């Protein structure tokens, strides 16, 4: 049996034992155990590493579909509105995964300390605009570091000292790995990804306002044509499509968490027409706003009435 197979087996065991238990995980660590396929769920994903130990998942960004399964990892490099669902999961073989929040400051520090070694795989790839989501097979070194991070859940006294070191190692494995060209740009303040990220954050913070591509391009230090091209390369959407997705996801949250009616929520997120809001909401989520929020509330009631197995 290969060393990587042993590490993957241990990762499955650790995730299965700890997923869902209360308590803080070290270093922004996230664990997931799911026992059945799930419906597509829309969310805004922040810069994250996700490693799959068992099962499979699908993430959709615009018109791009990313399937990833056991022994693979996915990186989200900038805040993006994505739709994800578990495609392989059962009670006998649940989906098991772990993730880590990616920190630009850690990546920047590693680039400074690593010098030329941090760019060893950059030859011939530096000119390409990085994508917002990438998938690769997990290397033995990255897998080993993830296993050691999750092991700290069994050794909470060690976590304050060891977790920051292992977190830096995981970031280093990504920086120098197959998707290093994308990961490195997360930590570079003047990278194309950082410039697009600045525009992305502005749209998210001002999603109810009208936007002008020329203004966003100026904010990013690019011509309008270059900005449009790089924005689409990273997000798989135009700026207007991105804003629309953010508006609709924010509307869904407002409908679920407040008592505002559908028309008021539509106006609150930037729509001038209630009918246009309902039409575009249905196109994204499959049902009109009122039906969707009623279904989500029923699901929440069922979950809250279900006793915890822990």
From TrEMBL:
Pfam families, per database record: AraC_N (PF06719), HTH_18 (PF12833)
Alphabetical UniProt keywords: DNA-binding, Transcription, Transcription regulation
The keyword Cell membrane appears for this protein: no
Domain of life, source organism: Bacteria
Gene Ontology MF term list: DNA-binding transcription factor activity; sequence-specific DNA binding
InterPro entries: Homeodomain-like_sf, HTH_AraC, HTH_AraC-typ_CS, Tscrpt_reg_HTH_AraC_N
Residue ranges of domain HTH araC/xylS-type in the record: 197-295
Full protein name: AraC family transcriptional regulator
Gene source species: Planotetraspora phitsanulokensis
């Amino acid at each position: 049996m290969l060393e990587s197979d042993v590490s993957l087996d241990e990762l499955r065991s650790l995730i299965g034992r700890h997923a869902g238990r209360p308590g803080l995980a070290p270093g922004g660590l996230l664990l997931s155990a799911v026992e059945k396929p799930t419906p597509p769920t829309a969310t805004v994903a922040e810069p994250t590493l996700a490693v799959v130990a068992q099962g499979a998942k699908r993430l959709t960004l615009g018109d791009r579909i990313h399937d990833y399964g056991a022994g693979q990892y996915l990186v989200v490099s900038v805040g993006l509105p994505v739709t994800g669902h578990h495609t392989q999961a059962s009670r006998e073989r649940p989906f098991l995964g772990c993730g880590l929040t990616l920190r630009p400051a850690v990546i920047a520090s590693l680039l400074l300390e690593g010098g030329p070694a941090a760019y060893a795989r950059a030859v011939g790839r530096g000119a390409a605009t990085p994508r917002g989501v990438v998938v690769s097979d997990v290397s033995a070194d990255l897998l080993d570091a993830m296993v050691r991070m999750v092991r700290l859940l069994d050794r909470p006294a060690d976590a304050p000292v060891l977790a920051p070191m292992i977190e830096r190692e995981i970031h280093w494995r990504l920086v120098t790995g197959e998707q290093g060209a994308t990961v490195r740009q997360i930590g570079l303040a003047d990278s194309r990804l950082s410039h697009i990220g600045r525009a992305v954050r502005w749209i998210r913070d001002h999603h109810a306002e009208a936007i002008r591509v020329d203004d966003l391009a100026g904010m990013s230090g690019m011509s309008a044509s270059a900005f449009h091209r790089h924005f689409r390369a990273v997000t798989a959407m135009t700026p207007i499509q991105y804003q629309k997705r953010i508006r609709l996801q924010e509307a869904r949250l407002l409908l679920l968490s407040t008592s505002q009616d559908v028309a008021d929520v539509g106006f609150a997120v930037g729509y001038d027409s209630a009918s246009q809001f309902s039409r575009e909401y249905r196109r994204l989520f499959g049902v009109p706003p009122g039906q969707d929020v009623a279904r989500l509330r029923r699901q929440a009631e069922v979950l809250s009435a279900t006793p915890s197995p822990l």
